[in-house]
Write a structure and sequence with these properties.
single chain; alpha/beta; Rossmann fold; Udp-n-acetylmuramoylalanyl-d-glutamate--2,6- Diaminopimelate Ligase, Chain: A, domain 1; five-stranded mixed β-sheet; four-stranded parallel β-sheet; 14 helices; about 40% helix; Phos_Acetyltrans/Butyryltrans; Phosphotransacetylase family protein; P-loop_NTPase; Ser_kin/Pase_Hpr-like_N_sf
């Protein structure tokens, strides 16, 4: 079971990379996600978007996949507050997992250790009910991460199989290697991988930004799959802006609809998306230039501050829904995850 101590730590990406490596070792894979959130987790067909994506990427059959038993949306939780769930969901979980085919089934947990507790389906409880070992994926912020991992060890006990430390910035890699990793190993917590930060994995498609902003696409709707790695605000004079823009790569530039000089400066640099605030449409020469350069322009009925807040939040909640990210995570896992150690641990368990 792959879990985390906080949301958006990289569980789905880890599962995809891990499944690729295990298959290379001759292990057939099943996949399950016992719980899911409502809202953004569900697609138009009412399915969990991550489950559908992982099933498609791995080419799994229905017999190799366990779909969520519960979507933890407001109505479901409200109902759970008034009805004692008892053993019903535990029995449903065990029955559904018994039908999943594969030498090894990878289960994906929710964002924290406690989610699902109301229904007797917290990460610890699911692991116990399914006789699963647990690997925690933890996004690195600082050495204070150690407290979260020690707490996970206290809760999970012998079921804690190991940890993968994710999203380690270049300035923190020596600290993790020299201090955090040896300490965790000395406390009986195997460190199976230490993944460096990747701008690509944290990037967001223009399509996702359009959705989150409720934006109108003014040009190049065929280029919404471009990936945005950085957000830049165009609010200075054009000379300063040009120097500033040239330092960025694969940017989304937010600026006013009436700032045509800044819009042109952005288009001439590494900009993958131009986001215009206010209610002033850009002049035709901006649209024409963006068309030639194949850069989408979005128009939003929001002020700059609100726009930036939404985009920032979107970067913080990145989902793995693009094939280019799948290729990236496979390469990173191949280099930074100790698959041989994992295989030895599986054989001994």
């Amino acid at each position: 079971m792959v879990g985390s101590t906080e949301p958006f730590s990289g569980k789905s990406a880890t599962i995809l990379g891990l499944a690729h490596q295990l298959r290379a070792q001759g292990v057939s894979i099943g996949y399950g996600k016992p719980l899911s959130h409502g809202g953004e987790d569900r697609n138009e067909a009412g399915e969990d978007a991550d489950v559908k994506f992982i099933r498609q990427v791995l080419g799994l059959t229905e017999q190799q996949t366990q779909v969520p038993l519960l979507f933890l949306d407001e109505p479901t939780v409200e109902k759970g507050l008034h009805h004692e769930p008892g053993s019903y969901y535990v029995e449903q979980l065990q029955q559904s997992l018994a039908q999943v085919e594969g030498d090894l089934v990878l289960l994906e947990g929710l964002g924290t250790l406690s989610e699902g507790r109301l229904f007797n389906l917290s990460l610890k409880e699911i692991a116990a009910h399914s006789q699963a070992m647990v690997m925690i994926v933890a996004r690195y912020h600082s050495l204070l991460l150690v407290d979260q991992l020690l707490d996970a060890q206290d809760q999970l006990g012998d079921r804690l199989f190991g940890v993968l430390i994710n999203d380690i910035g270049p300035q923190d890699q020596e600290t993790v290697r020299q201090h955090l990793q040896p300490f965790l190993e000395s406390r009986g917590i195997p460190v199976l991988g230490m993944m460096p930060r990747s701008s690509l994995l944290r990037s967001v498609s223009v399509r996702e930004l359009t959705k989150q902003l409720g934006a109108k696409v003014l040009c190049r709707p065929d280029r919404l799959d471009l990936m945005v790695e950085h957000l830049t605000i165009g609010a200075m004079n054009v000379n300063s802006a040009l120097e500033y823009f040239r330092k960025g790569e694969n940017m989304a530039v937010v600026t006013g609809g009436d700032r045509s000089e800044l819009q042109m400066a952005a288009l001439e640099t590494s900009t993958n998306c131009l986001i215009l605030t206010g209610h002033t449409p850009p002049p035709d020469f901006i649209i024409n230039r963006a068309e030639d350069l194949e850069i989408p322009i979005l128009s939003v009925d929001l002020d700059t501050l609100t726009t930036v807040e939404i985009v920032d939040r979107t970067f913080g909640q990145v989902r793995l829904q693009e094939s280019i990210k799948v290729h990236c995570i496979r390469e990173l896992m191949a280099e930074y995850f100790d698959i041989q150690r994992l295989m030895q641990m599986l054989e001994q368990s």
